[in-house]
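Known limitations

Files may contain more than one protein. Parsers should not assume a single record per file. Below, a two-record file is shown to illustrate correct handling: read the sequence, read the token line, then continue until end of file.
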Amino acid sequence: MKKTSRKNTAEKRPLFIVLSGPSGIGKDAILTRMKESDYPLEYITTVTTRPRRAKERDNVDYHFVSVENFQEMTAGNELLEWANVYGNWYGVPKRAVKQALDKGQDIIVKVDIQGVANIKKILPQAIFIFLTPASMEELAIRLEQRQTESPSDLALRTKTAEKELEQLHLFDYIVVNKQDEIDLAVSEIKAIITAEKCRVTPREITLEAS
């Protein structure tokens, strides 16, 4: 009987992981913890026109650009997707994604809910993970602890988060990021990636050059 083999089947087909969730849920903290563990992923840095916060590093946490530069990037088709979130523009650089995929590297990128809908149209075989709080009360507390928003902004972000929970149909997986249990959430994301690597029919990501 002829033996079958999965040799280099899933390995040659990189994964494109999209991490999303409401503001304040801890997307940045999750990605930082995964980087610290040397987990083998290509971490795509989002471009934004948002002002840099204390302790944030340019080209590490975000690529901070002016509105004019951002507009030039959209006009030049340099972004995979982009959206306006709370008055600021965010986008995913297409070249970084294409280069990583061409090398066969698994990719993870954080985007807002609008970004998820946009990417799903372009790359439907991507893996969409929704990061959610244990409760809306916990999320409100986390937003307050950040001390980066006014009371009116906090109310808006909490209300928006409630609406974002209605978009779960866009996602493949949901991970609860409980307060002070970040390692558990990271472990679940890694388990999702492991499961995807074991698929009989791997996802196939194709991104055309601009």
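...continuing to the second record:
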Amino acid sequence: MSTAATQPVALITGAALRLGAATARVLHDNGYNIVIHCNRSLDAASLLADELNQNRQQSAVIIQADLLDTKAVIALGEKSIAVWNRLDVLVNNASAFYPSPLGEINEQQWDELFASNAKAPLFLCHAIADALKTNKGCIINLSDLYARRGLSNHSIYTMAKAANEAMTKSLARELAPDVRVNGIAPGAILWPPGEAMSDENKQKIIDRSSLKKMGEPADIANAILFLANNASYMTGQILHVDGGR
């Protein structure tokens, strides 16, 4: 595909699964063409692209890139623009998450957690900023409520998300007035994959929220849609979607 799209175009990192896939579906339902970024989840990305293209022909593509590779990140941005000769929304959703207890931390953990949560989002913003300026677009970064609260045994991850929030606020100033930059800090939406949690611990987390319930991926996807379409006077903000945590 190389012809210019009349529909707005959204690039979503980590779009094959979980919050990324939910966001792709919601934005697609609201008229966006979708660039689905993935790394290892190519099969899931292919299924999602097929689903979206069945609903509207030639409206979704897949671009595979390793966010640990800065050159690949920049190429991801360039390729995303080239698909439809435009880009309107960047959702920096991809995120590595795992514990790094003090005394066991190593440089590989630092590199992995900072790459997906801070470094890659920044260099991707760098790669596509001019395209977003052309269409008065926006950037939406996925943070975490623990970026401000801290989380035991996850110091590197929370530091990376704190950097993500600082990036959001700095780029909001730097890219204004042409590009809005906001963030979303989810609460208890999905349990981390691969982590065994007891029902008791899950309930304790839920009970800490004012609404006393789990959120759903659609809650985050709809918040992203709001920031993309209906928040023309918002920039530099971190929207907490956490049930009043």
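Parsers that stop after the first record will miss the second one. For reference, the second record is described as follows. The helical segments are 18-29, 42-55, 70-84, 107-134, 146-149, 155-174, 199-207, 217-229.
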